[in-house]
Structures are given as structure tokens and as C-alpha cells.
Amino acid sequence: MQLTVNGTPAFVHTGGREIDPARPAIVLIHGAGMDHSVWSLQSRYLAHHGRSVLAVDLPGHGRSGGEPLGSIAAIADWVIALLDAAGLERAALVGHSMGALVALDAAARHGARVEAVALLGVAERMPVHPDLLAAAHAGEQSAIEMVIGWGHGPRGHGGAQGGSCPTPGLALIPGGRRLMASIRPGVLGVDLAACNEYGQGADAAASVACPALFLLGALDKMTPAKAGRALAACIKSSQVVVLPQTGHMVMTEAPDAVLDSLTSFLSLRRG
Asked: Which segments constitute the AB hydrolase-1 domain (predicted)?
């Protein structure tokens, strides 16, 4: 569905059910250079099991209008404005990578609006190599290859077709390439720069008062599980789940395990 946030069209995937303010809400926030489709399995299940789901396309991504926002804080403020546009007072925020930093920052600065946070593939700092930043700003294919290659663990890289996928008919690395190739020129560079410049992770974590779940890939090369654990230790009420044989793209590499952890954390029953 389309909403208007800060005067600009914003697309949210609702998992096949209308947003109902009477149901507890969950916002799914994608990572750099991606869109709502990375949450395809989780969004539909959660929408049909008691939640109003908003799997967002951030500004300048997917079907949303506007330009990509240049800082984690600006994106976090946009997420709160999204809740206003949807008529929602509070929501649980689930974010991956850049989206995890966004969820963390929103929970720290807008605590009254955030019921809980689930942070996937996250670390206090997410430095980006200058060569990758330059390639991403220039729109070079090498930037996509670096992000997709480093982002996937053995499930993504296994096999001649770039790794099997739990979703029938799909392959992880080719699917990731197609998704990132569809983004507008320069968007990946803006996103990666926002991650690179965000240095408030530990302070933000110390300010989070709501429950927090950390879902970490045991073989994550981009945000190692050790770094995720260290950030979790800064939050008063946090729990950590480390997914074996999983890289940075935890929600697509291990979608069922992610969903199991989310439903437990949000006190939902699967089945």
C-alpha cells in the first residue's frame, strides 16, 4: 500500500492484510541497497498471525518516492513519521544491517513509540572500505558484487547456481544481484555512507529501554557475531540468538529460524 510520509509517497508491504491500529504493529526495515522484498517470508506470516505489518521501502528505494536519506538518524525519524502516517501509536521495529542501526536509533530517541526491537546483522560500528564506498557512489557493478559476495555465508555460495534458497524457485546470490541491480544510481553509496558515518551505536544501545532481540549470523563477515554480542551487552533487556552456518543476510539465508525467533520474542505462536 502507499502512504504519504513527510509529503512524499512511501510504499509498505502489509503481508496481504490491511493495517489495523487495533492489532500490534511491526515495522520491517531493510538494509543498504535493498527493499521490502527481503522480508517476504516473515512479513506474510506475521500479518496472518496477529500483527499489522509494514515492510517498508525506505525513501528512494523500491516503490517509495523521494531521495535516499543521508543519515541513520534521519531514517529513524522517517520511520516514526511513517507510524504517524499509518495512524499507529507504537510498533515493534525489526531491522537488518543499516535497518538495524535505524531501529536502534529510533528506539533510543523515540522510546515511547517503540514496543520492542529486533536487530539482525548489526554491530556498534559498520565501517565501509573506501574502495567500496567509491564504487557504490559511482554505481559500479563491483559494488554489488562485493556486498552480495561478502554478505552471504555458505548457504548463499554453495552450488553452481549461487546457493539454494528456502523459497522454492529462488537462489540467494542471483536474487540478491537482481534486487540490488534494480536500485536507483547512487542509492547504495548514500546508504553505505550513512552506515559508515554512524558512530552512536553504543550510546544508543545504552538508551534503549524496551526489550531487544539480536539475531546474528555465526559466519557473518560484515558484522561479526562477536561485535553483535558486544552491542547487545549495552542494552539492559536483550537476548542473543546466533544462527549457525549463516552469514550477514540472516533473514533470507535462514528465514524459518529468523521467524521462529521473532515469533517467540513477540510472543506469537507458530503453526
From this structure: 26-260
